[in-house]
Design brief:
By secondary structure, the chain is of the alpha/beta class. It contains 26 helices and 10 strands. The chain has helices at residues 5-16, 18-21, 35-40, 47-58, 67-74, 82-85, 92-105, 112-123, 128-143, 146-151, 154-159, 161-171, 203-208, 210-222, 238-243, 246-260, 272-279, 281-284, 292-301, 305-309, 330-334, 341-347, 370-373, 375-392, 402-414, 424-434; strands at 184-186, 195-200, 225-229, 267-269, 302-304, 323-326, 353-355, 396-398, 420-422, 438-440. It has a 4-stranded parallel beta sheet with strand order 3-2-4-5. Strands 7-6-8-9 form a 4-stranded parallel beta sheet, sandwiched between helices. It has a two-stranded antiparallel sheet with strand order 1-10. The chain is globular.
Length: 442
């Protein structure tokens, strides 16, 4: 019998997925794919090592509220790069969420930043009005130049490196490409005759990157898709799930499933992290008698904007004479399995100099708010990424997730790199604008 109820929770979760989740044969093929293991060299910071710890908790050889368990589970980026290289098909991401849910529910003491995150997730992210206000305030700081002024201050760096990087994240969410604020309307004459779709706008994307949502809608229209934002949608719940607050994630998932209805139309997202969360609703709500089947159907409808565009030949725009490199969002790659689709979006732009990026499939260290919770590990992973970006010589980097845009943008700015970071669909949007596919919005 398990005396610790949190151990029981983890044991139950693992046993329910026994065939999938305990198939690890400890072969070690995941080690070199894991950014935290390659950085620290600590076996406990590898997927194999963390599975050892999980099993130790289930077998009551280790307490779930122990510092060892918490430390190494918290250090995981959750990038899921271990999954595609695992010959046994271990779905590590599900194990990680179960472990973090166990820690979240335990009485273990955590740092101030973790406690602050927990409060924000519970009292801001679950309240759409408060969340909109928080992002509106963030935009004021960014657009007024106050955030940039603070970021440039030496006193801020002396006060707190973590606060300085947080300012860098906010500053880097500003538009990076020229002509991005032009008001344009699609010249497509009859949207009602096009293929319908629903756009998942996302909390961070709509709050700080609304331009990406607008660009996606224009690009989709040129390619025969009329995407409208579903009313009453909320945050996808990814931050809650990554933090271990699975019940909070379920609350948001149910609201989104209701908001997007039962229509058999695609649900399109611009954010790799959101997309990976949306496709996991089927698993998240598998035990919910009311929502299980609705969640399963919803998850099958989710597509990244690049996956929707690649369902047919992407319309080519005007040439862009830019040297661009592409970095893959971990969750877009490992969660939604979009490997070639984002590259096809970029290749639809004539004369674009697309420079390969070494380690494009490896995490940048952002991982939601991991960069603020585990700054040392995140910084080490980011440093490696920035080194590879420098080698390309590209001045523009495209990536399909707002968290990655901010992480790489903040890191490059603080490192003094002249790098602009954007979403692939933003570049295609500019290409279409130059090709005359849009008219000025009156």
């Amino acid at each position: 019998m398990h005396d610790n109820p949190h151990t029981e929770s983890l044991a139950t979760t693992i046993q329910a997925e026994e065939q999938k989740l305990l198939a690890c044969v400890h072969c070690g093929l995941c080690l070199e794919a894991c950014p935290t293991y390659t950085l620290s060299g600590d076996e406990n910071d590898s997927p194999r090592g963390r599975i050892y710890l999980m099993r130790a908790v289930v077998e009551e050889k280790l307490r779930s509220d122990s510092a060892t368990f918490k430390t190494h589970i918290d250090r995981c980026l959750g990038c899921r790069a271990c999954e595609p290289v695992c010959p046994a098909g271990v779905e590590y991401g599900l194990l990680l969420e179960a472990s973090r849910a166990t820690i979240y529910a335990s009485e273990i003491k955590r740092g101030f930043t973790y406690r602050l995150l927990s409060l924000a997730l519970r009292h801001v992210w679950l309240n759409p009005a408060r969340l909109r206000f928080a992002f509106a305030f963030a935009r004021v700081l960014r657009n007024s130049g106050v955030a940039q002024l603070l970021l440039s201050s030496r006193l801020v760096a002396l006060f707190s490196k973590r606060f300085q990087f947080g300012l860098g994240l906010l500053v880097s969410s500003a538009p990076q490409l020229s002509n991005q604020t032009d008001h344009v309307a699609s010249t497509v004459p009859n949207p009602d005759q096009m293929k319908p779709a629903l756009l998942f706008t996302g909390c961070v994307t709509e709050g700080l990157f609304a331009r990406v949502n607008e660009a996606a809608k224009r690009v989709l229209q040129v390619n025969g898709v009329n995407a409208k934002a579903a009313a009453n949608q909320v945050c996808c719940g990814a931050l809650h799930a990554h933090a271990g607050d699975l019940e909070g994630a379920r609350v948001l998932a149910r609201q989104n499933i209701a908001a997007f209805g039962s229509e058999d139309v695609p649900v399109i997202t611009n954010a790799g992290g959101c997309g990976a969360m949306l496709v996991s609703y089927a698993h998240l709500l598998a035990d919910d008698a009311t929502f299980a089947e609705r969640a399963r159907r919803f998850s099958t409808r989710v597509l990244d904007v690049s996956q929707q565009l690649e369902t047919k030949t992407i319309v080519s725009g005007a040439p862009l004479d830019e040297a661009v490199t592409y970095d893959a969002s971990c969750h877009l790659l490992n969660g939604q399995h979009a490997t070639e689709a984002p590259l096809k979006v970029l290749r639809a732009i004539p004369d674009l100099d697309l420079v390969p990026l070494e380690g494009a499939e490896r995490c940048c260290g952002g991982a939601g708010v991991y960069n603020l919770l585990e700054p040392e590990m995140s910084g080490g992973v980011l440093e490696e990424k920035l080194g590879h970006i420098r080698t390309t010589g590209a001045k523009v980097l495209a990536t399909g997730n707002p968290g990655c845009q901010m992480q790489i943008g903040a890191g490059s700015q603080l490192a003094g790199m002249a790098l602009r970071v954007c979403h692939p669909v933003e570049l295609l949007d500019i290409s279409y604008r130059r090709a005359g596919f849009y008219a000025k919005d009156s």
